[in-house]
Design brief:
The chain has 314 residues and is mainly alpha-helical. Helix content is 76%, strand content 0%.
């Protein structure tokens, strides 16, 4: 018969198990807060910000937050990370924001969110090509279910298709998918907040001339406008992108991409709770499908371990 564990050995094993499961839980819950915060930006944009200034919202969301993080960390890119930060900032912010706003303007009734929900499937394909990760049937079916769930959640029967808007929505999904996968492939030696700040600054600087050219100088701002922009910069960018990029570091790229499906779920919940919008049975079913797809995508894959992530030694 096997010998019984000593009290000290039992305590050591229990402590290691708790640390491991706590790490795995935090590796998924903390990055999930990023897309959850992004879901609140729809409410902030419509209720607190001046109308018809989407690029200004993106600019003031990214650039001040990036400068703040760079100032706090006192760390600048070195070597290849000058151009890598520019590429990642362009993909995740500088190109993604204009495409997102163009799709939102051209595609009514939630079509933009539905088309954008293909991002996990794109990330899965890019991960197979660039990271050598196997694209499984489970992930593919979960990605298709995610698109179906988002369509139930936000799509309306009278939604009209505009092919320029569809192209913009697909383009937005593709550029952020590339940003996610390349962020996984390029492992920055710098602290997470510094790397996040570099990307936000790069994306904001790319947005600056586009914003001035297409929207002109900023309008006069009210106190509510200033509060809205401050919320987007602090929570909608500095906090949320730091959490998102943390997920990119410690989780497989495909699992991180599925967390982005939380954004339309939170946006719908905020509209129902805060704005008094109706919530239909189809929307409830869509939220359930999205959450189920997210859970399926997060299970069965290789979990991040303390040794793999390096967090246990910090």
């Amino acid at each position: 018969m096997p010998s019984k564990l000593s009290g000290e050995e039992h305590h050591r094993r229990v402590t290691l198990a708790l640390r491991y499961f706590g790490l795995v839980l935090s590796n998924r819950l903390l990055p999930a807060l990023g897309p959850a915060i992004w879901g609140t930006t729809y409410y902030v944009t419509t209720e607190w910000l001046p109308p018809d200034r989407p690029l200004l919202a993106g600019l003031l969301r990214a650039l001040p937050a990036g400068l703040l993080l760079v100032a706090v960390t006192r760390r600048l890119p070195a070597g290849d990370w000058w151009w890598r930060s520019l590429v990642l900032g362009a993909l995740n912010i500088g190109a993604f924001f204009p495409l997102l706003f163009l799709a939102a303007y051209r595609l009514p009734g939630g079509v933009a969110a539905t088309v954008g929900a293909v991002q996990p499937l794109v990330v899965a394909g890019l991960s197979a090509a660039l990271l050598g990760q196997r694209m499984t049937l489970r992930v593919s079916l979960a990605a298709i279910a995610g698109v179906a769930g988002v369509s139930l959640l936000v799509l309306r029967a009278n939604a009209a298709l505009d092919w320029l808007g569809v192209a913009a929505a697909l383009g937005g999904a593709v550029v952020m998918a590339f940003g996610t996968v390349l962020g996984k492939r390029w492992r920055s030696p710098a602290p997470l907040l510094a790397t996040t700040g570099w990307q936000l600054v790069a994306g904001g600087l790319l947005l600056l001339p586009v914003t001035l050219l297409l929207e002109g100088p900023p309008p006069a701002l009210t106190a509510a406008n200033v509060a809205g922009y401050a919320y987007l910069a602090v929570f909608g960018a500095a906090v949320s992108y730091s959490l998102w990029f943390r997920g990119v570091r410690v989780l497989p790229a495909t699992e991180v991409a599925f967390l982005g499906l939380l954004s339309p779920v939170v946006a719908t919940a905020v509209g129902w709770l805060v704005l008094g919008q109706d919530l239909t049975a189809a929307q409830v079913a869509g939220a359930v499908v999205v959450l189920a797809a997210l859970v399926v995508a997060q299970t069965g894959g290789r979990a991040a371990t303390p040794r793999a992530s390096g967090l246990a030694r910090r």
